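Handout, page 2. Input:
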Amino acid sequence: MAQMTCSSCGTSWPAGYQFCGRCGSSMNISDKFTAVPAPPPGPAPVEPPPGILFDDPLSAQISYPDASIVRFVVLRGPVLEGTAFELPEGRVHIGRAAELSMSADSLMAPRHVAIDRFGERVSVDEITGPGGCFLRIREPMSMLSGEVIFAGEQYLLVRSGQDIPTEPASAYAPPETFGTPLPAPRLHVTQLLAGGVPGRVVSTDREQLTVGREGCDLSFPQDRFMSGRHLRIDLLPDGSLQVTDVGSLNGTFERLTQTPALLRRGDEILIGSTLLRLEIRAAEEA
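Output:
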């Protein structure tokens, strides 16, 4: 630290003293004390643009929760068509006695499915209702043998030929076999009635099977929601199955077997007997 000397008594004091602390004489300040200059200002802080929650690439695509309107709209079922249910942030249940109440739908469990929402991200998080939850397919869908699809008003159990159960031989059946042997089926579809009781059954030894209202391998002429040619089931070379909606009016639905299942804008889900469409409107569209 710089020092100054009193001209009267010769005592040294730190630079900047106006009077001597010993004799009280005025200090002879030849040079004015210069304070240490402030450091130069740094760059201005960068404010994150609106809508970004965290500083990473994934979160940069997620808007604030209040930036969007997310809701389910009833398309068909016992609940009035067009009724809208807004989805709050977080986890919410749909069922007869849930936060999103569908009390008029007798096919729904009290808390049938759990929906998780964060901003515009919506997913089916858990399915507890015994009737399951079905998602409308947008493109050809691979499925496992033994899964269930929904088309028109029909629930259909689809299996490959190797998974078709066989009845045990009866002790009263004659040992001889009469008639033409049955061909080895490759595709097998069973209509499921109320309570899971099997209804109509069709098997084919071909690698393709069609379903519709008329002129198909499995036809339902009395089904008002079934298109003339509604869907096609193919057995692929690797042994897996593929379901294709061939331009039906009311769509073909797969039963969700794994959760969470991410939903997209415009997706339709069937819960109980109620068909819902997911609508997402961003803030600038509102």
